[in-house]
Each structure stands twice: as C-alpha cells, then as structure tokens.
Amino acid sequence: FFQAEDGIRDAQESRGLGDVYKRQELETPMMSSNAGGATAKPFVTHHNDIDSNLFMRIAPELHLKQAIIGGLERVYELGRCFRNESIDTTHNPEFTTCEFYMAYADYNDLMNITEDLLSGLVKELYGDTKIVLNQNDGEQPIQVNFAPPYKKIDLLPVSYTHLTLPTIYSV
C-alpha cells in the first residue's frame, strides 16, 4: 500500500505535476461527528475524553471541497478510507484513495490529469507504462498500456447501446 502511495507522490514529483498543476496536498480528519462524503455505511468509533461516538471517514471529499470553497484552487489527498460494507477478494473495507479537486476545471482537464497521474504512477512503480495483469478466471495474462492518450467514449450512446435504459435523450 505504501509503495503505491509513495509512487503517486514520486510520479507527481518526477513529472512535475505538483508544479504544473499547482496542487496542494492536504491531510483531512479521519474521524468526524457526522458521516459524509459518500453513500457507504461508515465505521463508528468512540472517543472516551469527549464521551462521543465518531465516524471513520468514508471519503475525504467534503473536507477537500470545503478547502476549494475556502479559496484553495487545487487540492488533493492520499489517505485512508473506511467503508463498513461487504468484504471479498476484490473489496477491502479499509483502503487508500487519491482524491483531487480543482476550481475552474472541466472534465477535459480532469481526464488529462488522470491520464498523467495513472501513467506516471505505473511508470514509477514498474519502470514502464506497459504492465502485464493476471486475470482472476485463469485466462491468459493481458498486457495493459497506461501511456496517454486514453480512448475517450461518449457515455450516453454507449449506455443506450449496451444497457436497457429509458430513452430520455435523443442520441
């Protein structure tokens, strides 16, 4: 876990993402008097000194958005989250996340930053943007190339093509 977290920071530093995007890393509270930031069920803990139940955070989202509202234009956090939900081989209720928010950005900016972050992380961790992934079902491993640019698709037409949805927009 720490290797990936360090890899994200190293990728940002080596590719100049901190300077280019001028993001401020924040450390937001892990416990709060109210649950928020996502719809998952939170873990509850008890603070003895104040004799109060607190919720372990399920996402840093609300605090990061408050920082944006408070005047910081570009923020992110690498931090632990806790979601009191099911557990299996692909879902751990305790995990590290990277969330970032940017004032005045649109979805194109966010896609470009995500491409830079993912490709930089993979290159930092594996020495290349191409990695081999083993599949759970015993199939042959597959090679994935994280080098940008990534393929972009329009969500609505693909959704209507592959899902049974009511037609509310003409595609």
Q: Can you characterise this structure?
A:
32% of the residues lie in helices and 23% in strands. The protein is α+β, with helices and mostly antiparallel strands and 171 residues long. The strands form three sheets. It has a three-stranded mixed beta sheet. Strands 2-4-3 form a three-stranded antiparallel beta sheet, with no helix packed on it. A hairpin with a 4-residue loop joins β3 and β4. α1 packs across α4. The model has no long low-confidence stretch (mean pLDDT 84).
Strand portion: 15-25%
> Low-confidence stretches at least 5 residues in length (pLDDT < 50)?
none
The multimeric state of the shown protein is single chain
**Any idea what the radius of gyration is?**
19 Å
Helix proportion of residues, in percent?
25-40%
Query: Treating each run of at least 4 consecutive H or I residues as one helix, how many helices?
Result: 5
Q: Can you list the strand order of the major beta sheet?
A: 1-5-6
How would you describe the shape? globular
End-to-end CA span? 42 Å
